[in-house]
Amino acid sequence: MKKRALSIMLSAVMCMSILAGCGGSSTSANMEDEAVAETDSVAETDEGTHIVVDHFGNEVEVPNNIETIVTTSITPMPSVYCMFAGSAERLIGMSPSSKAAAENSLLAQIMPEIKDVPTDFMTGGEVNVEALLAMNPDVVFCNTSKEDEYNQLREAGLTVIGVSTSQWGSDSVETFEGWVTLLGEVFNEEDKAAGIAEYGREVYNMIQERVSAVDESEKPRILFLYNYDDGTIMTSGNNHFGQYWATATGGINVAEDNDARGLEINMEQIYEWDPDMIYITNFVPYLAEDLYNNTAFEGHDWSVVRAVQEGNVYKCPLGVYRWYPPSSDTPLMLLWMAKTNYPDLFADIDMEQEIRDYYKNFYNLELTDEDIVNIFNPTREAAGA
């Protein structure tokens, strides 16, 4: 199962470089002439623009040489972009929610410069258009679910690229690949992170092989606490990522009969569902202990819910980003949740080692024991604004 995609790619590049250096003097001279011509061509190309079709289906003219970008309502995009680009250098603005996740994740360790990216052009999820215009970004990425924001920014003269969280249904692997493909088109670097999506499919297929034999009556019934703020509880209907995580890891989403994405529910509905397991996302400041101690919100009695009584409440991990939405850590979420749902069926999966190997192979990062502990125990502050 261990995949060495990036190591193989890097080795291939090194081999090509070595072979290129083995030619005679005339070959070297020709290569130098070609390099000069190519440099002149690149310089001309960098000064121009090219057309990208965003996830609204709109043609967007973007600079060939993009030096500054801002992300607004598409909160996972800063982490996806940073892993794609290998740097946060060109990122000059992102939402407070994205910033909170970054500051409380390994992304800040890998790329500490992300902690200095401004967020003050957004308040309460809303964009201050004048403040954003003053930042003068080359491109702005926003969520296609925020069509009013998208249109407002375009009318203000900004180069705006719509990024969808629903075009691929709730499939997190396909969604992540769709985002990376779009980034490749915007920055003229197609398929730069294809290895992660490929590995995600391998993990998914392995899980399906194992859980396919589980009888429907034995599958855990799962409730996602997608959002839980000031007494308002939101879960995932069958058009949100909770549906994918549940079905992909051999579980049943208790709200699967509802077509909504984010579905507002009350405690009475939770009592009726009486889920076997509860997963709390990192958009929620509460931890499992808040439900076990019945201290999450006054008037909400979690003590009578089966998952709480049986000790099956879990906080989703946080690596380079929150694991609930699509991210470059999506394959790890699949493994972790499958093993959490079926400890015996996946007893051979050592999650700590899987995470270490994954971060080494894809991010070239050697994790410490403390890093592992932090991934499995994200802070309340990671919920952000």
How much helicity do the residues have? 40-55%
Number of helices: 16
DSSP E strands, number: 15
Main beta sheet strand tally, sense and closure: 4 strands, parallel
| Percentage beta strand | 5-15%
> Low-confidence spans: pLDDT under 50, at least 5 residues?
1-32, 35-44
Strand order of the largest sheet: 4-3-7-8
On the 0-100 scale, what is the average pLDDT? 88
Shape: globular
Structural class by helix and strand composition: alpha/beta
Radius of gyration: 23 Å
The termini sit apart by 37 Å
Notes on the protein architecture:
It is a single chain. It is globular and about 60 Å long. Strand 10 and strand 11 (232-236) form a beta hairpin. The chain has a 4-stranded parallel sheet, sandwiched between helices. A 4-stranded parallel sheet has the order 12-9-14-15. Helix 3 crosses helix 8 and helix 8 (172-186) packs antiparallel against helix 9. The chain contains 16 helices and 15 strands. With 385 residues, the protein is an alpha/beta fold. It has helices at residues 5-20, 25-46, 77-85, 96-103, 107-110, 129-135, 147-155, 172-186, 194-211, 241-248, 267-273, 288-292, 306-309, 330-341, 351-363, 369-376, and strands at 49-53, 59-63, 69-71, 91-93, 122-123, 126-127, 139-143, 160-163, 221-225, 227-229, 232-236, 252-253, 262-265, 277-280, 313-315.
Topology readout:
Elements: H1 5-20, H2 25-46, E1 49-53, E2 59-63, E3 69-71, H3 77-85, E4 91-93, H4 96-103, H5 107-110, E5 122-123, E6 126-127, H6 129-135, E7 139-143, H7 147-155, E8 160-163, H8 172-186, H9 194-211, E9 221-225, E10 227-229, E11 232-236, H10 241-248, E12 252-253, E13 262-265, H11 267-273, E14 277-280, H12 288-292, H13 306-309, E15 313-315, H14 330-341, H15 351-363, H16 369-376
